[in-house]
Design brief:
Number of domains: 2
Order of helices and strands: EHEEHEHEHEHEEHEEHEHHHHH
Bound molecules: NADP nicotinamide-adenine-dinucleotide phosphate
Mean pLDDT: 96
Strand order of the largest sheet: 3-2-1-4-5-6-9
Structural class: alpha/beta
Helix content: 25-40%
CATH superfamily of the largest domain: NAD(P)-binding Rossmann-like Domain
Length: about 280
């Protein structure tokens, strides 16, 4: 019987990886920081640990056949020790990377590329998704409480991906060695502007919603107040602005691997509509 170690198992992608593996009849061990809060299915073995505690990762990986790895920070500090500890126990690693990684210089492609480089000696598969559909949860409060969503670059075109599609590819990769050494660029099925994403959410909750454009300065202030790093903010604002004229690419990888089209944002919005609906209190 195969046992797979899942990190980030309580997260937006990881919880679907766990379910997909269980559905495939595979034993799942989840590295969790707080087992009492994990809320995972009862047949998942919980291994208490922290990605910043390499010894706990090594313990959790002992006796497993493959691992699903994410790195939970925008800095790779600490990743080298953790990757070494993990790969001492399990060589097969499916790593949740990012579409941002450039093959020309992965080490200069942010934390995702830095971790890819650390995995060079392992039997790796790199999943490189673009932005997650779940990123639109950042608008949930505005949709719940009012009828205006404020953002910079409403015309930015994004090919957001459903987290369940990333997880489905992860499960395939974890269970079949033919995916070793593959880098999969994963996107949703289409480009939608940020305004179109809001329109889809508005449709899903049955409430008219308007988009108001923030100036870069207004957006910067909001993001600073949320604790974002100033250099991250500048990079993000410039990136979203660039997507007005040069939208993100749409890849065919999900469809060719899963033999079905990627899930749409309309589907995601319908599944998550309750999160965006005013609660009884506000109706
Ligand atoms: N959002 C995007 O558009 C996007 C695009 C490309 C790549 N990514 C990458 O995707 C990953 C996030 O995936 P996600 O959205 O599925 O995760 P998520 O929903 O943000 O949840 C984070 C997961 O990581 C766990 N975690 C956090 N810190 C940890 C630590 N120190 N030790 C052990 N576990 C820890 C959390 O567990 P707890 O239950 O303990 O909190 C949780 O399961 C990140 O690496 C991100 O860079 C994101």
């Amino acid at each position: 019987m195969t046992t797979v170690l899942v990190t980030g198992a309580t997260g937006r992608v990881g919880r679907h990886v766990v379910q997909g593996l269980l559905d495939a009849g595979v034993s799942v061990r989840a590295l969790v920081r707080d087992p009492s809060q994990a809320g995972l299915p009862p047949d998942v073995e919980l291994a208490a640990g922290d990605l910043y505690d390499p010894a706990s990762v090594e313990r959790a990986a002992t006796g497993t056949d493959a691992a699903f790895l994410l790195w939970p920070s925008f800095s790779a500090e600490g990743a080298e020790q953790t990757v070494s500890a993990l790969t001492r126990q399990v060589s097969r690693v499916v790593y949740l990377s990012s579409l941002n990684v450039s093959d020309e210089d992965p080490a200069a492609s942010g934390v995702w590329g830095e971790v890819e480089v650390l995995l060079a000696g392992a039997d790796w598969t790199f999943l490189r998704p673009g932005g997650f559909m779940a990123n639109t949860l950042e608008w949930a409060d505005e949709l719940r409480l009012g009828d205006v969503v404020r953002m910079p670059s409403p015309g930015a075109g994004r090919s957001l991906i459903h987290e369940r599609d990333i997880a489905a590819v992860a499960v395939l990769a974890l269970l079949d060695d033919k995916h070793v050494g593959q880098k999969y660029s994963l996107t949703g099925p289409e480009v939608l502007t940020q305004s179109e994403q809001v329109a889809a959410l508005s449709h899903a909750i049955g409430k008219p919603v308007r988009v108001e454009e923030q100036t870069p300065d207004e957006a910067r202030q909001v993001m600073l107040a949320q604790g974002a790093d100033p250099s991250f903010i500048d990079g993000a604002l410039a990136y979203w602005h660039s997507l007005i004229d040069s939208p993100e690419p749409v890849t065919t990888t999900v469809e060719s691997l899963l033999n079905r089209p990627p899930l749409t944002f309309r589907t995601w919005a319908a599944e998550h509509a309750n999160t965006f609906r005013p609660s009884q209190r506000f109706e």
